[in-house]
Fold Pyrroline-5-carboxylate reductase catalytic N-terminal domain-containing protein.
Amino acid sequence: MAAASLPSVTVFGAGAIGSAVAQLAVKAGASVQVLARDAAKAAAAADGATAGTIGDAVTGDLVVLALPYPAIAEVLSAYPADAFAGKIVVDPSNPIDFATLDSVVAPGSSAAAEVAERLPGAQVVKAFNTNFAATLAAGTIAGEPVTVYAAADSEDAKATLRALVEAAGLAYVDAGALKRAHELEAMGALQIGLALSEQVAWTGGFAVIK
């Protein structure tokens, strides 16, 4: 199978994860757009990326919703559903209630499944939710390349994301179909809980050693 070419990338959100993903996409050599509510924060997210505000046209073929779980529906509502038709939409969110450290979506479901239901014309991928922003920015954890897990029903979407991740020097693991987003979100919740209880550093986390 031929290697997938690098996609153009749009990142929604200029927080820690959004900035880290935008920076790794620039490092990979992709064309990157960052959209946020604050244009100045979008401009500061990644050198080499173009910046704009939510509501601007989405230029990327691969869209990363680097937003807190409660903000995803609101941001998507700023666009017609067909604005994402044919695009790869990556959901890095962890649907966590930080008061209880419990998931806020129904058992057996996932935030990614909700995104897929809202955007039926898109190819939805769950990825980056098991990575802390500091490790994505560093590119390594415990001396090994950071591993990005990805779950999606589209093999082409996963191949495209893999090309981007590996071009940035990170490792990639295919976690299976989109239904596995439920397990990935459980991993993300566990890791966040361990960090909040200071049992794992925000510069650490889960690693894959092959």
In short: The chain has one domain: 9-196. The chain has a mean pLDDT of 94. The CA atoms of residues 130 and 184 lie 7 Å apart. The longest helix spans residues 181-196.
